Amino acid sequence: MSDKRALIRGQAKRLFSEQGFKETSIAAIAGAARIAVGSVYSYYPSKEHLFLEIFLEENASLKQACLASVDRTREPKEVVADLLSRMSRDFMENPILRQWYDPRVYAKLERVYREEKGQ
């Protein structure tokens, strides 16, 4: 990942975490990264694409952490219950992942995801 792309993602993740998806603008992200707004668009076609990339990375990290914490010596029913409980708790504690439950955010992101992934 290029340095500028990493800078954009880092600032966007911080702003999305602090202010939320709806309240964060591309202009705010560009300002925080100290670059022109057009530079953000040269890496990401929209705020939704940028957020979705961060969201998917956060989601994958959560899944990996949860799977790594599984005690496979326990009964399967207990493992599944613990895994679901942890994933639910961690999902709601993560400011990026929690935004998925905002219907206004979800509708936009789902549309972008389906267009991008062809689903």
Mean pLDDT, rounded to whole units?
Answer: 90
Oligomer: single chain
The coarse silhouette is elongated
Q: What is the tally of helical segments? A: 7
Helix content: over 70%
Largest sheet: none
List the secondary-structure elements in sequence, H or E: HHHHHHH
Task: Pick out the low-confidence regions.
Answer: none
* Spatial separation of the terminal alpha carbons: 26 Å
**Topology, number of strands:** 0
- Rg, rounded, reads 17 Å
What report would you give on this structure?
The chain is mainly alpha-helical. Helices cover 76% and strands 0% of the residues. The chain contains 7 helices and no strands. The protein has helices at 3-19, 26-33, 37-43, 47-68, 76-93, 95-98, 103-117. Helix 1 crosses helix 2, helix 4 packs antiparallel against helix 5 and helix 4 (47-68) packs across helix 7 (103-117).
Q: What descriptors fit this protein?
A:
single chain
Write a concise synopsis of the structure shown:
By secondary structure, the protein is mainly alpha-helical. It has seven helices and no strands. The mean pLDDT is about 90.
Write the layout of secondary structure elements.
Elements: H1 3-19, H2 26-33, H3 37-43, H4 47-68, H5 76-93, H6 95-98, H7 103-117
Helix pairs in contact: 1-2, 2-3, 4-5, 4-7
